[in-house]
Specification:
With 183 residues, the chain is α/β, with parallel strands linked by helices. Helices cover 30% and strands 19% of the residues. The chain has one domain: DHBP synthase, CATH 3.90.870. Strands 7-1-2-6-3-5-4-8 form an eight-stranded mixed sheet. The chain is globular, with a radius of gyration of 15 Å.
Length: 183
């Protein structure tokens, strides 16, 4: 895992508008602050992906998502707490708090509380961050720092050293209101 100094460097990079690549539970991700439109647009350009598709956010703890969960019922909150932290992304009703470039054209926002120690450490420093697979849209996700370099060259501002968690592939995606599994 990245050292405390490397976590601080990554957090500073993101605070200064940078885009980082970092290992998650199952694939490498690209991240930035969700409110930083220029950084999010850089991620979308790197991936050759439309903003309309939306992006998910990852956090260290459910309370970091408090402003996005204002319309969630107690029963739905219990469901989130059962699966988090872990490799499950929930599509939660969008309450207007997230920027358009995060939500895209959807009526939901994708949220995940990660159990990966490095992701958790980054989010403890920064709060929720964008978490999208490190790949060109529609292509396989990066499974190593070397693959991130192959895909994006020097276009990523920092590659945070670390290892993937034990998950194979990206997180499962579920609709909170229905339980439907999207991926």
């Amino acid at each position: 895992m990245a050292s405390e100094l490397e976590i601080q460097q990554a957090a500073d990079c993101v605070r200064n508008g940078g885009v980082i690549a970092y290992p998650t539970e199952g694939v490498w991700g690209l991240g930035s602050l969700p409110e930083d439109e220029a950084a999010v647009m850089k991620i979308l350009a790197l991936k050759q992906r439309s903003w309309k598709q939306g992006l998910l956010l990852v956090a260290a703890a459910i309370d970091q998502f408090e402003k996005y969960l204002t319309t969630v019922t107690d029963a739905q909150l219990d469901k989130l707490n059962q699966d988090w932290p872990g490799p499950v992304t929930y599509l939660v009703p969008h309450n207007g708090e997230a920027p358009e470039w995060i939500v895209g054209t959807h009526e939901t926002i994708g949220l995940r509380v990660s159990a990966h120690p490095l992701v958790s450490a980054l989010c403890q420093e920064l709060g929720p961050i964008v978490s999208t697979s490190a790949n060109l849209s529609g292509q396989p996700s990066a499974l190593s720092a070397d693959e991130v370099k192959q895909f994006f060259g020097d276009s990523v501002d920092m590659i945070v050293p670390g290892e993937l968690g034990g998950q194979s592939g990206p997180s499962q995606i579920k609709v909170l209101e229905t339980g439907e599994i999207i991926r």
